Amino acid sequence: MIVDFHSHIDLYSDFSKVILGCKDRGIYVLAVTTTPAAWSGTNRLVMNCPQIKVALGFHPQLAKARLNELSLFEQYLPKAKYVGEIGLDGSAAFKSSFAEQIKVFRHVLSCVNSAGGRILSIHSRQSVGLVLAEVRKISCLPVMHWFSGSKMELMEAINSGCWFSVGPSMLMSQKGRDLVASMPRNRVVTETDGPFATVKGRQLYPWDASLVFSYIASVWNISVDDVEDMLFENFLCMLKSLK
Ligand code: MN
Fold first, then answer.
1. Exposure string for 24-63, b = 16+ CB within 10 A, e = fewer
2. Residue 175: which region, alpha, beta or left (left: phi > 0; alpha: psi -120 to 50)?
3. Which long-range contacts (CB under 8 A, 24 or more apart) does 89-94 make?
4. From ligand 1's centre to the CA of 159, what distance in Å?
5. How far apart are the C-alpha atoms of 232 and 12, rounded to whole Å?
6. Is 73 left (phi over 0), alpha (psi -120 to 50) or beta?
7. pLDDT for the residue numbered 242
8. What order do you get walking across the sheet with 119-123 strand by strand?
9. Dihedrals φ, ψ of 120, to 5°?
10. 121: CA distance to ligand 1 center in Å?
11. With CB atoms counted within 10 Å of each terminal CB, which end of the chain scores lower, N or C?
12. Strand 119-123 to strand 82-87: parallel, antiparallel, or no bridges (unpaired)?
C-alpha cells in the first residue's frame, strides 16, 4: 500500500487526473496546502476520495504575502486534523521574510496547541534548530518533511519526537540517503512533494512515493515488500496516535 504524506495535489496542472489516479490505485495521500485560502477548495476537489486528506497550510515562503490569512487559519482549524505545509525557511531567498515567517509559525503552533490532536507536515529548510525549539513548546505530532538538516539536527529532531516523511528526490543526494539511513525505522513514512519535486527532470506523482522502497530495503536489509508493509504500518500507527 502506497502513502504520499506530502503532496501538493491542488497544484498539478492536471489535478483531476492525478486525483483519479490516486483513487484508482487506492493510495493514501495527505494533500498539503500552501495557504489557508486553498484549504476549502482543495477539500472540494477530493470530496469523493476518502483516502485523500487535506492539510491546512501556511507555507513559510508565503508568510509575508498572506499575513492577512491568519484569521482564516483560525477559522478552518477546528475542521482540520492535519496541518501543513507549515514551518520556517532560512534559505537566502526567503531570509528577508523571516520575521513574518516566525510570526505566522508561532501563531499557527499556538492555535494547534489549543486545538490539540493535530498532525503537522513541517518545512525546516536551513532552520531546523528554530523549528524544533518552537515545536517542542506545544503538543502535536510533528512530521518533518524532506528533512535536510545536519546529522546532529536529525538527532535533535528524533529526540524531540519527530517523524519523517521521505521522498524519492531526497534520495538523489548522498546526504539525503545518509539521513534516511539514520532515521528510526518506526518513525518514517513516504512522500513525494509533487508536483514541485522531480527525479531526473521528471515530475513526481503521488504513486511515485513507492520509488523509495528499494533504497530503504537495502538500508534496512529486508525485502521491498516488507518495507512497503512496515511503512504502511508506520502510517497507521501515526494515525492511531492522533486522538
Ligand atoms: Mn512541499
1. eeebbbbbbbbbbebbeebbebbeeeeebbbbbbbbbbbb
2. alpha
3. 89/60, 89/61, 89/123, 89/125, 89/126, 89/127, 90/125, 90/126, 90/127, 90/130, 91/125, 91/126, 94/60, 94/61
4. 24
5. 25
6. alpha
7. 75
8. 82-87, 119-123, 141-145, 163-166, 188-190
9. -115, 140
10. 9
11. C
12. parallel
Ligand 1 mean position, distance from CA 69 (Å) = 19
CA of 230 to the centre of ligand 1 (A): 24
pLDDT of amino acid 102: 98
Per residue in 110-167, pLDDT (tens digit) is 999 999 999 999 999 999 999 999 999 999 999 999 999 999 999 999 999 999 999 9
**Does residue 46 have a pLDDT over 80?**
yes
Spatial separation of the C-alpha atoms in residues 36 and 69, rounded to whole Å: 6
CA of 227 to the centre of ligand 1 (A): 24
C-alpha 55 to ligand 1 mean position (Å)? 12
